[in-house]
Amino acid sequence: MPRSGEKTKKQILDAAHELVMGHGLAGTSIDKVLAKAQVTKGAFFYHFKTKADLAKALVQRYVERERLYLEGNIIRAEKLSRDPLQQVLILIGLYREEIEQGYDPNDGCLVSSYTYQFEDLDAQVQDLVLETFARRQQCFTEKFVAVLDQYTPRFPVTAEELADGLLSMFLGGYILMRVKQDPLKMSMQLASYRNYIELLFAV
After folding, report:
1. In a 10 Å sphere around its CB, with 0-12 CB exposed, 13-18 middle and 19+ buried, how is residue 9 labelled?
2. Three-class SS of residue 158?
3. Computed over its alpha carbons, how large is the radius of gyration of the chain?
4. Nearest to 31 by CA among 17, 51, 46, 8
5. Are the beta carbons of 103 and 69 closer than 8 angstroms?
6. pLDDT, mean over the chain
7. Tens-place pLDDT, residues 57-76
8. How far apart, in Å, are the Cα atoms of 170 and each of 95, 133, 166?
9. Closest Cα partner for 66 from 58, 76, 55, 54?
10. Domain annotation for the chain: domains and CATH numbers
11. What is the DSSP letter of 21?
């Protein structure tokens, strides 16, 4: 059971996350976070010295959750098939399954929302954002390297390009999902990418 201080910190982070996703980092003031989290200024500044510290803590928490989620899905895909191409298709399917089971469009990707104000971010937060994208890209690239080792594509393509394509589908899907307030927009983008992969490798 979390201690009182940990519970308060979680309340602040949860409130800030929701506000940032709805209004952006620039539009999220400390006063708004205090009101939404229903905590005092003293409680806030006990945990975070500045708004930049809060932004860093938010992205650190998100990055860790995203890392565990991605690694978990990769492990599931590898358990379901030894074939690298099938693993990629399964991975896409797992993401689609989660989205279609009731994904909240307002939750979205915190790291993606930070990129809209990238130049205004603290240098440490910028590094965390870049690290997150690099980790995703590396995981996807490694999967596609294994695919290209066993399968010949119909058109010239590199593992890095395929990884960038999948990452772009996620980021573009988040935008469509938020704008349209329809989680299925993300699922449709991923379905299109899966179709592309199947056609590319003549599955």
Report:
1. buried
2. coil
3. 19
4. 51
5. no
6. 86
7. 988 888 888 889 889 999 99
8. 10, 11, 7
9. 58
10. 1-48 (1.10.10.60), 51-200 (1.10.357.10)
11. H
Alpha-carbon distance of 61 to 183, in angstroms, equals 23
Give residue-wise pLDDT tens across range 130-148. Answer: 888 888 899 999 999 999 9
- Encoded tokens for 149: 């080792």
| CB-count exposure of residue 79 (10 Å: 0-12, 13-18, 19+) | exposed
Q: How many other β-carbons are positioned within 10 Å of the β-carbon of residue 197?
A: 19
Cα-Cα-Cα-Cα dihedral sign, residues 153, 156, 161, 166: negative
Q: What would the pLDDT profile of 97-134 be if each residue is shown by its tens digit?
A: 888 886 665 555 666 666 556 556 667 777 877 888 88
CA atoms of 48 and 12, how far apart (whole Å): 10
The residues, any chain, with a CB within 8 Å of residue 131's CB and separated by 6 or more, are 63
Give the pTM: 0.80
Q: H-type helices in the chain, by residue range?
A: 4-23, 30-37, 41-47, 51-80, 84-100, 110-115, 123-150, 159-180, 184-200
State phi, psi for 3 to the nearest 5 degrees.
Answer: -65, 165
Q: Which two tokens stand for residue 142?
A: 């490694």
